[in-house]
Amino acid sequence: MHAAADGGLARVRVPGGRLTATQLREIARASASYGNGVIELTSRANIQVRGLGPDGGFAARMADAGLLPSATHERVRNVLASPLTGLDGPGGGGIADVTPLVEELDRRLCARPALAALPGRFMFALDDGRGDVAGFDADSGILPTGPDEAAVLLAGADSGLRVPLGGAVTVLLAAADAFLAEQAAQDVTVWRVSELHDGPARIATRLRAVLAPPSGAAGPGSGGAVPEPGPGRAGGTGEAGGGTGPVRPRAAAFGPVGVVPGGDGARVALGVAVPLGRLTAEQAEALADAAAGGEIRLTPWRGAVLPGLRKDQVAGTAARLVAAGLVVDPDSPWIGVTACTGRPGCARSLADVQADAALVIALSGAAGPSGSPGPPDPDGPAGSRGATSPGGTGGAAPVAGRAPGTGTLPVHWAGCGRRCGRPRGRVADVVATGDGYRVELDGTGRACAGIEETAAAVAAARGDL
Ligand code: SF4
């Protein structure tokens, strides 16, 4: 629990973003009972709840729901995973189902007392080969390069190390050990690998020393060695599969929204965007009710994926979610719009940025509360922009037919110049100034006094004027 301007703020880690429907319902009910009734989704696919009193009732409810399995390690259970892993089959871009690795990593992390000393911002990432979360600058991550090989990522970059997938968790934890050892050796206290002097290279050196098997001995996991990478591939930027050349991950700008075909052809997943990443308790209940497979996966794009829907369930499910104010249309003007906490939750904020962002979207002519024109086609193409493209080059794919004034560039609203929660990559910034907003893109900006002027500047920055 942290103190915020609007009361206690609790953050609950959700490794891999995976929740059961029962857990999501319990979060919704506890947030309404003890907090302000809004569940904020974070860029680490965790949740946070505001407006809590000091009595600890919310934490007790979370513990009872199985969401606080380790009091000592709660802050360090930051584990990102590709949200569609294991769901969309070989054509979806993933190489391996990393779901079992998420569970193994969480279990072994919590079983290591020394790793409770990791900073709360230290992050693990398990990308399944599609390259969607590999670019989130995780401190310790993997990106599969083949069916049984993964590149080891340190501070979001290719370390040059390759490991068998069966040994991935051993290496991820060894990188966390190496971070703590290097921090002590440099006599500093930092949050992230990138903040250490020469951090990625020094940790890679420590990993080689720990993991390279002595002659004749087995390496991590399935017995492979930790070889140096092979020669790089031409045009390999962001590519994950098909060899051991260097990989250069980039963060995908958008998460899955709409229907995602399943690997077996019978079931599909539904990607759901959550406006500004804020789920009301009612919306959370609607998501839990819609979870045909009993599972919800939160995404680092502050949305959710519902696995396991039959095709004949899609239209009704989508209609109920849209009626609750959620978004299943990949062309909705809500896609790619983020905002910091702003007023009243942050004392530094110069504006209620979330209300103003919603007003600007309304001014953009959205088709309805969610901007959704109708139910998605369960047999149509995958409803995702950028996040599921094979190779994971990320960024906004060209999109036809979007509402006027919405554009395709991510836009981030902030109540002050700190710009908390700003996504990676090219982003249009809308920063409160006290006299209005300043809309900035690529180093140039425009001061806007009123909300309509701000809306016009945002539309221009996003590329639709
Ligand atoms: S960007 Fe500024 S106003 Fe927004 S949450 Fe961060 S400190 Fe607060």
UniProtKB/TrEMBL annotation:
Pfam families: NIR_SIR_ferr
Stretches with biased composition (Gly residues): 232-245
Domain (Nitrite/Sulfite reductase ferredoxin-like) ranges: 9-54, 263-323
Organism: Streptosporangium fragile
Keywords recorded for this protein, A-Z: 4Fe-4S, Heme, Iron, Iron-sulfur, Metal-binding, Oxidoreductase
Sequence ranges of Low complexity compositional bias: 396-408
Keyword Calcium included in the entry's annotation: no
Region (Disordered): 214-248, 366-408
Database matches in InterPro entries: NIR_SIR_4Fe-4S (IPR051329), NiRdtase/SiRdtase_haem-b_fer (IPR005117), Nit/Sulf_reduc_fer-like_dom_sf (IPR036136), NO2/SO3_Rdtase_4Fe4S_sf (IPR045854)
Protein name: Nitrite/sulfite reductase
This protein's record includes keyword Lyase: no
